[in-house]
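Kindly inspect the following:
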Amino acid sequence: MMRYSIWGPHKGPGLLAAAVALVTVAACSNGAPTGAPTPPSPPTSSGGTSASAVPTSAQPSPTPTPSRTYPLSTAPRTVPAVRDHEAARGPGWKPTPTAGIVVAAGSEGLADEARLLAGELKIAYRGAVAARAGDVELALGGKGAPESYTLTTRDDRVRITGPDQAGVFYGTRTLKQSVKGSGAMPEGTVVDTPAKPQRGLNLDIARKFFTAEWIEARLREMADLKLNQFGLHFSDDQGFRIASDTHPEIVSEQHLTKAEVRRILALAQTLHITVVPEIDSPGHLGAVLRAHPDLQLRNVQGTPRQGAIDISKPASARIVDELLREYAALFPGGWFHVGADEYQALTVRSPAASYPQLAAAARQRYGPQAAVQDLAEGWLNDRAAVVRDTGKVAKAWNDGFFRGGVVQADEGIEVEYWTGKEIGARPPAEYLAEGRKVVNLNDEYLYYVLGEPNQFTYPTGRRIYEQWTPLVLRGTTPVPARYDPQILGGRLAVWCDLSGAQTQAQVANGIRMPLAALAQKVWDPAKPSMTWEQFRTLATRVR
């Protein structure tokens, strides 16, 4: 896009300037003092006049000013970084008082994205009208992977296109960050797509209540980082935090109303974030069991196990399934997390001896070789089937998928891998070798546990940025790269084991940089080009 002056790339104004200089030298070389009359020039042999006698009207015109040129642009600086930028020469785009956001014909479904961007850039939203100089146009269309987009800056205009609304929305996040960080969007074309389809944050509101406003603020923060999944763990031993119509007796005093949840879900939808609810079972059900103590798991001596439900009793399955169906109807997204981790019956030396009722139920249902482990695996499959009947995909924690046994976990359940330390936990390569799809919540890097109990330490953005990748599912060692297509993405997880250790504001501040680092690593598989200090500075500037 190099632009030249009217003199062309080789014929610069230097030739004309040289001619003018020659004329000047000729006029001044007769030796007359400055200000003295100039004697008449003698005639030339051809009958013409000398150079000093050239008429004024024949003197060269002033040198024209060359047209402006620009250096090649550089990629916009955003978090996460754009994956491909085709540089060009030009001034780029800046919001001006006359600029506006428009949607292309046939793309009226992008009105929400356009209005949001207009408010953020403080320019007008003009609707489905033709774009003009200074405008930003949003359009659906073209080929590409889900959530991808193309952003073209040329001729004082920006055009953002994508095959779906989420992709166009992510293009608006790139534009917003670039303008906030540098004041402009560079000339050229961005072609961008996420490396992983699931990217996000997990929040435990069961142990510590978080307000709807706090959650909404995190959703907005996530959206600017192009994160698209928000896990909501709202049932555990310490609390059940969403109002229930089927079982109001289990709901904690501090809880979200369904109106608040619908408000959160409406915001999430506009930000292209899926909220994934979680009701963990057969462990972590203390809040439910306080209202239904007859369902509490007890060992052969009659001692209750904290948070564990007796899965040999039909009433246990009935109450959990009623809750799954109730909240599957409330949450419109495509997933439901059914937990399955840390079932206390399996943490003792001999589950069959300690819990003979579970062992008898396992043999009755699955045959004489079945054990308590098989009954627990069957419980997981049954809950996954309930979720599947509502049109959703089930997720479960990795330590609910057992090695060997008579019963195997359903192949369609997504493995949420968090640890290798718990009973039943296996190396991640085992799950992958079975062909299972896995999401990375590695507790070594991605677990933000309030109060740092059990040797947990608060994750740092730097450590995630410099050391972690989606292949690092357990500890610090990556699985073989051939498994990369089976790893669906990753989430940072906030757990509130010691709920009073931090305030809501401290949690928000503490996860800010880890969340930015995670966003970078699940969007772009390449090694980051910036140092951590450069990345941290940029993340502060553009967000």
Q: What stands out?
A: Confidence is low (pLDDT under 50) at residues 1-58. The first helix runs from residue 14 to 28. The chain has 14 helices and 18 strands. The two ends are 32 Å apart (CA to CA).
